[in-house]
Amino acid sequence: MRIRTFLSLACSLTALAAGLPPASAQGVAPPPIRAGGSGPAAMSQTLPSSTPSTTPSSAGAALPATGSGLPANPANLPVTAPPALPPDSATGATTGTAASGPVSPPSAQVALSQVLQAARTNFDVSIAQREVVGTRADLLAANRSPFPVLTAKASSIDLQNGIGAGNDFGRKRIEKEIGIDWTYERGNKRALRTAAAQRAIVAATFGVQDAQVQQLLAANDAYYELLAAQERIGQVQEIERGASQLAQTSARRVQAGDLAAQEGERLTIEARRARTNTQEAQLARQRAALVLLQLTGWTANPATLSVQDAWPRLDPDEAADKVYAGDWAALLDNRPEVRAAQARVLAARAQVDLAESQRKADVTVGASVTHYPGVSNRLVEIRAQVPLQFGYNFEGEIGRALAVYSQAQDQLDKTRLVAGAELQRLQAEALSAAQRARAYETDILPRARQVAANSERAFNRGALSIADLLDARRTLNATLLDALEARTDYAKAAGAWQLRTQPLDTVAAP
């Protein structure tokens, strides 16, 4: 009986401390959960659309040079506020989700601007945007103080002599105590956690921009690959028709005794080879269409998808447009992957200071009120607790944080180096591709056409052998395909250069 009374009293005290009704009234159903109050969509609606920041500046403004000493407290360093993500078309939440269902192309013939716009919001970009939503949630978790702890207990229960009669709370000889404890964080821990979370948001947001640039580069290449595949089909079909006509003509000449059967068989083989080249070109076109559909997220028949834009113009002063006249250092520092790496360095610096702040022990203060019948109804206790950190000074946590910080600095240096080399490569490729495409268009291809035409006239008059005619045709066919390849390389290189040297929001088709 006494044990049951003790258990009932303990449950009642616990329920009162948690803000719940007594045990006798706990049969009430819980309040209903609001519709739409859970899940990722509801979480994203509660997240802030931007990060609080101090003085707006570039992400690298407060970054120390590689090999220099550690900067000051990151909580006092400027943080670049990340750009706001585009709102979701259905909910308005800044999640940047890609389309959940199948999306068809705007038309059977798509333009480069439509392809680039679809690539900006494909699933790879959406995955990167989810990371931003996660870092914003991390900011909410970091920017708070420890919760206070409410304690309720019943003690001094005399199981030998009994606890007496009467009311459980007022008369029975049970010491009842209720108190609250709160941990005071020393060493600016909350500000350091918040600073690290803010810089993680900045890094994730620039990561989204880098993902968009990567998808735009891939979409630009895929678009011109499909355009080249379309034109290649037309060229090989024209080659096939010419070879077939020549084979038919040679067959009639063989029957008339005007041409050796061996020579006629060679022309027949050339016609069949041309037919297989047409089939191969059709397969290459379907592959290019599938790659473009994958990058845009569209669902369509690859056999019916085509592109409508023409090739970029080859102006005489095109080479001058591919020489960047601005500040290369500023161009490198403004690249999204470099700015993301800079933000990760600052976040790692904040983690170092956070690890060092653990050397300052937190203080837990509390107070409680005790009731013991027969002694006093109002006994107050005030207490403070401090951990005694003997024999260990958080060397492990600090060493790990310093290693991550050095790793982030090395990654920043590597990112800058790779970005600079890529810009130099893109410039060299754009200049070389422009010169090569212009040479084919103005010199090599016209010469090959003239040689092939002269060979056709000479063969028809009987002044040229089959072998020489085939050589002239093969030269023209190879030159046509090489000229198309040069055009494709130039279009891809010019688009990549434009995407890397112009602001993301102002990029247009080259």
Kindly describe this structure.
The chain is elongated and about 135 Å long. It starts with a helix and ends in a 9-residue tail after the last helix. α4 runs antiparallel to α5. 57% of the residues lie in helices and 8% in strands. It is built from eleven helices and six strands. With 510 residues, it is an alpha+beta fold. The relative contact order is 0.12. The strands form two sheets. A four-stranded antiparallel beta sheet has the order 2-3-5-6. Strands 1-4 form a two-stranded parallel ribbon.
Task: Determine Rg (CA atoms, Å).
Answer: 38 Å
Measured between the Cα atoms of the first and last residue, the distance is 89 Å
Q: Largest sheet at a glance?
A: 4 strands, antiparallel
Identify the strand order in the major beta sheet. 2-3-5-6
